[in-house]
Hints:
Layout: H1 9-15, H2 24-38, E1 49-53, H3 61-65, E2 70-75, E3 82-83, E4 97-103, H4 112-122, E5 123-134, H5 151-159, E6 163-171, H6 174-190, H7 194-198, H8 200-218, H9 221-226, E7 230-237
Parallel strand pairs: 1-2, 1-4, 2-3, 4-5
Antiparallel strand pairs: 5-7, 6-7
Helix pairs in contact: 6-8
Amino acid sequence: xxxxxxxxxxxxxxxxxxxxxxxxxxxxxxxxxxxxxxxxxxxxxxxxxxxxxxxxxxxxxxxxxxxxxxxxxxxxxxxxxxxxxxxxxxxxxxxxxxxxxxxxxxxxxxxxxxxxxxxxxxxxxxxxxxxxxxxxxxxxxxxxxxxxxxxxxxxxxxxxxxxxxxxxxxxxxxxxxxxxxxxxxxxxxxxxxxxxxxxxxxxxxxxxxxxxxxxxxxxxxxxxxxxxxxxxxxxxxxx
Length: 239
C-alpha cells in the first residue's frame, strides 16, 4: 500500500475507501489519522506551503487545499509540480516549505537517511514532517519494498536525521491486521474469476472488514500502539 500505487481512480479510493474493498479498514484508519494530524492546532495550514514528497496519485491533496494550504506534489514523475531527480534530491531551494508530507513512501526508499535529510533541507526552521509508513504489511514493491518499522524504531530513525517526534497515531492492531491480510488474499484469488470478482469478492470484503473493525474495538490501545499496521507521525524539524 503506497501512495504511488494505482491510477487516477486511486485518488478517490484512498481518500474515501469503500467497505466492500479489501483494504477498507486500513485506508479508513489511515485517512482518519491523517485528518487528526491536519487538525492539530500546532500545524497551521492556512497559507502554508506544503510539499508531498513522493506524491504518487496525490490522494490527500484536497484535504490540504481545503484548509488553505498551497500544495505541491514532488515525484520522479515529470507531471508533478516539483521534480525529484534520480538521486532523490528535490528540485527546490532550502527552507522553502512549512510542511513536508510523506504518505506510505518510506518503506520504498533504499537510502532512508538521504530521504529524511532532503525533507529537512526544504523545510523552514519551524517546519513539520507529516509521515506515514508501515509497521506490518505484505510485500508490495513499488518499484521496490525494503523495510518495516516498530514505533520505537521509526521514532529513533527519523529523529536521528534532525527531527523530534511530537505525535504518533497507530492504525490497525494485530488482531485486525491478520483479518485484513486474509481479505487481501481472498481478493487476490477471487479477482481472477470475473463472476466471483463482481459477486463474491465484495461480500467477502464487507464481512472481513466488519470483523476487522470489531477486532480493533476489542484490542487494547497499548497493544495496537506497538503492533500497528501503519504509523502516522508528526515530527517537528530540529534546528
